[in-house]
């Protein structure tokens, strides 16, 4: 059977308070992604023998601000902190957890940092001999360590949000190339 293009087939919802977890919802009205008109037919064929892309995991980003928020929660309510991390990163909880397997962490400051910093502010140090993680907030590493205690198989992808200021045309980490 053919399915009309631009038709929403399924909507799934999970609420913040976990009152609904992966709950299927029927669309209340048609959702169109284009101009109304005659729908063309399309066949989607899945070949289980051909791999075009591989998925390395599913997850999110741990910025300085999200690490600070989690760290503050740990200070105020340890049980809730571990519950949140468990719901996000535990692979043992099945449908009761997101089971994130991938975590992206910025190297140095991002748009979600309290201050602008890099991990090598020594001009001309293209070999990164002066690379130093001490500019990063300590709570970032504390939260990562806690996450890894829940899911030791977690893949952590570190990447720069911005090169150090001395590498940019503006001489600052904000703007420039």
TrEMBL record:
One of its GO terms (biological process) is glucosylceramide catabolic process. Pfam families: Glyco_hydro_30. Residues 55-175 form the Glycosyl hydrolase family 30 TIM-barrel domain. InterPro entries: GH (IPR017853), Glyco_hydro_30 (IPR001139), Glyco_hydro_30_TIM-barrel (IPR033453). One of its GO terms (molecular function) is glucosylceramidase activity. One of its GO terms (cellular component) is membrane. Keywords: Glycosidase, Hydrolase, Signal. PANTHER family: GLUCOSYLCERAMIDASE, LYSOSOMAL ACID GLUCOSYLCERAMIDASE. Belongs to the glycosyl hydrolase 30 family. This is O-glycosyl hydrolase family 30-domain-containing protein. It comes from Favolaschia claudopus. The lineage of its organism: Eukaryota, Fungi, Dikarya, Basidiomycota, Agaricomycotina.
């Amino acid at each position: 059977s053919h399915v009309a293009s631009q038709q929403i087939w399924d909507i799934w919802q999970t609420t913040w308070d976990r009152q609904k977890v992966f709950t299927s919802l029927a669309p209340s009205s048609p959702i169109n992604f284009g101009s109304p008109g005659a729908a063309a037919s399309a066949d989607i064929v899945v070949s289980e023998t051909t791999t075009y892309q591989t998925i390395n995991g599913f997850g999110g980003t741990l910025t300085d601000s999200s690490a600070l928020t989690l760290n503050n929660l740990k200070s105020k309510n340890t049980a809730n902190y571990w519950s949140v991390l468990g719901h996000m990163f535990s692979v043992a909880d099945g449908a009761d957890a997101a089971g994130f397997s991938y975590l992206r962490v910025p190297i140095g400051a991002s748009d979600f940092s309290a201050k602008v910093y890099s991990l090598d502010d020594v001009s001309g140090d293209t070999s990164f001999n002066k690379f130093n993680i001490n500019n990063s907030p300590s709570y970032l590493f504390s939260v990562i360590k806690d996450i890894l205690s829940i899911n030791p198989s977690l893949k952590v992808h570190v990447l720069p949000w911005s090169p150090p200021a001395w590498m940019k045309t503006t001489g600052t980490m904000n703007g420039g190339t």
